Amino acid sequence: MPSRPAQPPTRIFVARHGQTISNREGLFCGHSETPLTEAGRAQAVALAARLREVPIHAAYASDFSRARDTAAAVLEGRAVPLVEDAALRELHYGEWEMEKERAIARRYPQQFRLMRAEDPAWRPPGGEDVQAVRARTYGALRAIARRHPHQTTLIVSHGTAINCMLSALLGMPASHTFRFAVDNCGLSEVSVRGGRLCLSLLNDTSHLQGIGRR
Fold first, then answer.
1. 90 tagged catalytic
2. Which residue of the set 90, 92, 158, 207 is catalytic?
């Protein structure tokens, strides 16, 4: 009896959006809108070039424009609809939204110290804690993997959101959520091996060489 052809692997590419004005100005920008900079648009184009030869069957992004616009650059010329998923949103910074770190450190010294210490008790006033973001982003990742077996999927999200998603995938405690970098348009890959989600690439930025942060 002839053997059945091997099924293609389940691959999920996870990318952060390109640089934004709030990134450049050092502002907390969770659920606020902020456009891509010129450098951010160039990063998105470079990400698209990095994935040009990769077949993409489905694509998801946070419903904020910086994620949507980055995903749109990758999907240009492809007949792949972009699905907006609010579960892929950035951490909501509440009263810290669109504020600089120096101002926050002065006005909220205790909560700022907790954030810097990666204390799971940290929560910006009126915002979300890390555990909540880990639960919703990792839940979204698992749902997408179930929805697209043996396909290649693109996810475009945000820095802290991706830290939360992938640290939860790796079983890291909440106190170690930020122990790896997630750069603008950095590319990670999750695959399914033996029925488990596995991280096979983390924050690849090789496609961004020569793109300055303007």
1. yes
2. 90
